[in-house]
Design brief:
Blueprint: H1 10-25, E1 35-39, E2 46-49, E3 65-68, H2 83-95, E4 101-105, H3 108-115, H4 126-129, E5 135-138, H5 147-154, E6 164-167, E7 171-176, H6 179-201, H7 211-223, H8 227-242
Length: 248
């Protein structure tokens, strides 16, 4: 039962906690690194983010930290976020108000793709087509995502059409309008990257979708009614039955 109904943005906090928990179940997390954030004001500058040093599998709705991307004293707070979380997500929420939710991971297949000399993801099946013409590749990794490096990275997401940044030599950053939309993309990007990498491993020629078909499929994914919401609803139902302490 929700005993924190008086906490603002409780539904969004619970959705975020569920996304963290499920990311851990899918082994897409990395130790106590990586971060998800969600804007909670109209300007997109106030946002929720995971607390520093807490494993994804232990995050709860009430443990998420609310910070302001325009507050220069954020890192002086006793509950200050990880400095790379502040760098990347603070920079993103200052520069890209359309990116309401952001999820950054070093999941295995996304990171393998990010490590290739050519990190582009071709449309070779229905899942990879979800990202057709909606991905940007950062080829200029300059070190960990502290503020200067992060500010450079997020400029690549200024186009609202772009949902995914393959961070070369680093990992992936997915953005969206809601937790459900963003997590669904994160899940499918990892699946798509795995499909592509396994296809490369065969050494056989790939069957690329024609441009028109790939773009049509990407648009069909975007218009698919309530697909992402259904995905997150079912994740929460599973967690409610097995590990409901995410929503406390």
């Amino acid at each position: 039962m929700n005993t924190h109904a008086n906490i603002a943005h409780w539904t969004e906090r619970s959705d975020m906690a569920a996304a963290f928990r499920w990311t851990a179940r899918l082994n897409m997390h990395e130790a106590v690194a990586n971060h998800f954030s969600l804007a909670i004001n109209p300007e997109g500058t106030r946002f929720l983010i995971n607390p520093r040093g807490q494993h994804f599998a232990r995050i709860t709705a009430s443990s998420l930290v609310e910070i302001d991307a325009n507050d220069p004293t954020t890192m002086d707070r006793p509950d200050a976020p990880d400095p790379t979380a502040w760098g990347l997500h603070g920079s993103l929420h200052r520069a890209c108000p359309h990116a309401r939710c952001a999820m950054h991971v070093h999941s295995i297949h996304a990171t393998v793709l990010a490590s290739l000399a050519d990190s582009h993801l071709p449309a070779i099946d229905q899942n990879t087509a979800m990202f057709h013409n909606r991905v940007v590749v950062d080829d200029n990794y300059g070190g960990m995502a502290f503020e200067e490096e992060a500010a450079r990275c997020v400029q690549l997401l200024s186009n609202p059409r772009i949902t995914t940044m393959i961070m070369g030599n680093h990992g992936v950053l997915i953005v969206g309008r809601t937790v459900a939309e963003t997590f669904n993309r994160l899940y499918y990007f990892e699946r798509a990257a795995e499909t592509y990498i396994r296809a490369l491993q065969t050494g056989r020629p790939l069957r690329h979708l024609p441009e028109a078909v790939a773009e049509k499929t990407a648009q069909e994914w975007e218009a698919y009614p309530s697909f992402a919401e259904d995905h997150l609803r079912e994740i929460r139902a599973l967690l409610d039955a097995e590990a409901s302490n995410y929503a406390i």
